[in-house]
């Protein structure tokens, strides 16, 4: 007997997959989400939950290759390349390095700004419309500096950001410290992004799942997809337990696991898993009033009513499943350097790592497969899956239903990698 055919199969139950599922449901399509583990338990779980139009500038920037070479032998550097023989990684790095020039930097920044700005506005609408209880706050985000040269370098980026519609405020160090008692002396300046926001990512993803279910979507957890098999009139998905699912269409939203699934289909998606870390603590008595990026150390600090998190770092070590104590210690050291009352090490509730799906141009791949009309991709969001989730979901839903999208889909086209 042939298995039941669903309308749209969403492969991946993180923020991107669930936001796409919700947007499709609101567009009149039916969805079944297939998640290998538990909803939001992988890449979406342990990030710092900042919603950041401010992060429009891509990682591939002038000067980054030289800094990366210096950091290669420094295991606790903000960007770390674990030395190993990996031809795929080195090809990716060469393409990444080739984009570290002003023209490509600006092209990627514009594409990122468009999807980030749309997602920021859409997220607020979804929070209100669907009653998402996820500790959402609109206090902005601050880059904080103790190194004056680094401060001045980033101040120079404010003008092009302003031209992209990303508001900035430059604040003198003394004035900043008078307003933020949680920080130690030594801050030379800060850059505030007043339009940024924050939420608790695990609660956000859980709330998306709740709304998807309430609107008739189906979610299967513990359902690991082993193969995607396009057919003339739809798709067939083979599951690890030996079962199958059929659908009219499939959206692959499996973050860093996407390339392996679509490679047998003749599709290339150059995603490298960029490993990030975080440490979660109970609520602090003296916590920063808004999310911070300790920019000299590339460490993010987020305080919610229910807790406190240190996060960030970027490690290219493949899909290495070890929890690197050196990288975690770098987060704790940054907190001690900047915060008057950093969390004690023994107070940690969770130490976490996750693989960010990094493309060399720092833009996601969104849209229909150029080879298979019933296969769609929504992957490659790098460090910004939460920030880009609502815009991604709406854009993919618009493309699948033939509606005019809110933003130009051209920068994210899948064909650029084929």
Average of per-residue pLDDT values? 94
N- and C-termini, Cα separation: 37 Å
Number of helices: 11
CATH structural class of the largest domain: Alpha Beta
CATH architecture of the largest domain: 3-Layer(bba) Sandwich
Largest sheet: 9 strands, mixed
- Total separate domains: 2
Helix/strand order: EHEEHEHHEHHEHEEHEEEEHEEEEHEEEH
Which parts are unreliable, with pLDDT below 50 for 5 consecutive residues or more?
none
Task: Give the helix/strand class.
Answer: alpha/beta
Output the radius of gyration.
21 Å
Looking at CATH, the homologous superfamily of the largest domain is: FAD/NAD(P)-binding domain
Specify the helix fraction band.
Answer: 25-40%
Task: Let me know the number of strands.
Answer: 19
CATH fold category name of the largest domain:
FAD/NAD(P)-binding domain
Strand content: 15-25%
Shape: globular
Can you tell me about this structure?
With 418 residues, the chain is of the alpha/beta class. The chain has two domains: 1-61 and 101-135 and 197-270 and 360-418, FAD/NAD(P)-binding domain (3-Layer(bba) Sandwich); 62-85 and 136-196 and 271-358, D-Amino Acid Oxidase, Chain A, domain 2. The protein contains eleven helices and 19 strands. Strand 11 (234-239) and strand 12 form a beta hairpin. Helix 1 (15-26) packs parallel to helix 8 (201-214), helix 1 runs parallel beside helix 11 and helix 4 crosses helix 11. The radius of gyration is 21 Å and the shape is globular. The model has no long low-confidence stretch (mean pLDDT 94).
């Amino acid at each position: 007997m042939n298995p039941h055919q669903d309308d749209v199969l969403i492969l991946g139950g993180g923020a991107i997959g669930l936001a796409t599922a919700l947007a499709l449901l609101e567009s009149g399509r039916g969805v079944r989400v297939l998640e290998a583990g538990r909803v939001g338990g992988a890449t979406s779980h342990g990030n710092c939950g900042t919603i950041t139009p401010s992060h429009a500038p891509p990682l591939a920037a002038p000067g980054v290759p030289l800094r990366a070479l210096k950091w290669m032998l420094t295991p606790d550097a903000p960007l770390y390349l674990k030395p190993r023989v990996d031809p795929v990684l080195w090809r990716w790095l060469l393409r990444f390095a080739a984009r570290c020039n002003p023209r490509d930097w600006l092209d990627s920044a514009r594409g990122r700004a468009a999807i980030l700005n749309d997602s920021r506005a859409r997220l607020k609408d979804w929070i209100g419309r669907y009653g998402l209880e996820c500790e959402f706050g609109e206090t902005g985000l601050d880059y904080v500096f103790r190194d004056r040269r680094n401060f001045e370098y980033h101040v120079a980026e404010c003008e092009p950001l302003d031209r992209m519609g990303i508001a900035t405020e430059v604040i003198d160090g003394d004035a900043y410290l008078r307003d933020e008692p949680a920080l130690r002396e030594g801050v030379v300046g800060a850059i505030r992004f007043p339009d940024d926001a924050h939420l608790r990512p695990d609660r956000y993803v859980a709330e998306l799942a709740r709304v998807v279910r309430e609107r008739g979507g189906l979610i299967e957890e513990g359902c690991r997809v082993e193969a995607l098999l396009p057919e003339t009139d739809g798709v067939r998905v083979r599951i690890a337990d030996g079962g199958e699912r059929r659908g009219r269409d499939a959206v692959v939203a499996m973050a860093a696991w996407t390339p392996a699934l679509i490679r047998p289909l003749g599709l290339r998606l150059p995603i490298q898993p960029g490993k990030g870390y975080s440490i979660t603590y109970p609520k602090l008595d003296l916590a920063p009033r808004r999310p911070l990026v300790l920019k000299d150390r590339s460490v993010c600090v987020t305080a919610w009513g229910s807790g406190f998190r240190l996060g960030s770092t970027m490690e290219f070590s493949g899909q290495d499943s070890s929890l690197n104590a050196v990288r975690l210690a770098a987060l704790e050291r940054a907190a001690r350097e900047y915060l008057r009352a950093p969390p004690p090490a023994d107070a940690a509730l969770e130490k976490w790592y996750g693989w960010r799906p990094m493309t060399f141009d720092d833009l996601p791949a969104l849209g229909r497969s150029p080879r298979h009309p019933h296969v769609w991709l929504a992957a490659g969001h790098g460090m910004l899956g939460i920030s880009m989730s609502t815009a991604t979901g709406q854009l993919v839903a618009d493309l699948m239903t033939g509606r005019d999208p809110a933003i130009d889909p051209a920068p994210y086209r899948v064909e650029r990698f084929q």
